[in-house]
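Hey, I was hoping to borrow your eyes for a little while. There's a protein on my desk that I can't quite get my head around. The fold is given in discrete form, as structure tokens running alongside the sequence. I'd be grateful if you could look everything over and explain what you see. Here's the protein in full, and shout if anything looks odd to you:
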Amino acid sequence: MTQPRTTPVFAMLLAVTAMLLVVLPFVSTFDDVLTVIGMRLGIAAPLQWIVPAEVRVTVVMLGVFGIHAGAAGNQLVVWNSHGAPQTLFISWNCVGWQSLILLGLSLMVGLRGRMTFATRLEVIALGVRHEVADEALLSSDPDRVAAE
């Protein structure tokens, strides 16, 4: 009896998923440490100025997908299927600055050495995609939302 060809693929997916689950608490803890450092350095106020612009961009992106939303300063208002508004406060700590720092560190390590321009572009694209996915995952963490 032979093994199906998909067994190695599923084994690799399982291994990658397990590694991500092991690493995620360290990334989340690192973000918390960066938040404390950011608060002590006083970057909360400058980052808070960015929030209204990000909220407006989010409203436009939600509109593209047919979701009725509005912006009110630092608040994102999304209407549910029954027409009731749901107000979401977006704080300075939700704009993704921690992921930008992690992306910068990742790119510093990933772009060392000699490589072609195409390879460098691929490293940057994979890094940006990874950081966007991490930020989406971290921002959906209920413990993190409750703490903010």
